[in-house]
Amino acid sequence: MTAQYAEDDAALDTAAGAGIGGVVGGGAGLLAGIGLLAIPGLGPVVAAGWPRRPWERQPASLRVA
User: Fold this and answer.
1) C-alpha pair distances (Å), 41 with each of 19, 20, 53
2) pLDDT tens, 29-65?
3) Distance (Å, rounded) from C-alpha 57 to C-alpha 63?
4) Of 10, 30, 29, which is closest to residue 18 (Cα–Cα)?
5) ∠ Cα 11 21 4 (to 5°)
6) How far are the Cα atoms of 4, 5, 7, 8, 13 from residue 1, in angstroms, in the given order?
7) Helical H runs in the chain?
8) For the whole model, what pTM was predicted?
9) CA-to-CA distance for 46 and 39, rounded, in angstroms?
10) How far apart are CA 15 and CA 25, in angstroms?
11) Are the CB atoms for 46 and 36 separated by under 8 Å?
């Protein structure tokens, strides 16, 4: 085996590992998110976002004229 083929194999193995890691990590994140939505009382907060405090000003980019 020459050095060129070893480098090609390493690049292919790295790409395959990154792809597998992305799929596994994405699936784990999806399952964790679904699990949080299933907790009574916490699901709506996760889905809609934490409520804003009335004394905080809204950013200018979100203000309605």
Assistant:
1) 36, 34, 19
2) 999 888 888 888 888 887 887 777 766 776 777 766 6
3) 9
4) 10
5) 5
6) 8, 6, 10, 11, 16
7) 3-37, 43-48
8) 0.55
9) 10
10) 15
11) yes
3 state SS of 1: coil
Residue written as token pair 């994405």: 26
Stated length of the chain:
65
DSSP, collapsed to helix, strand or coil, labels residue 50 as: coil
Query: Is residue 6's pLDDT more than 80?
Result: no
**How crowded is residue 35: how many other Cβ atoms within 10 Å of its Cβ?**
10
For 32, the token pair is 């964790």
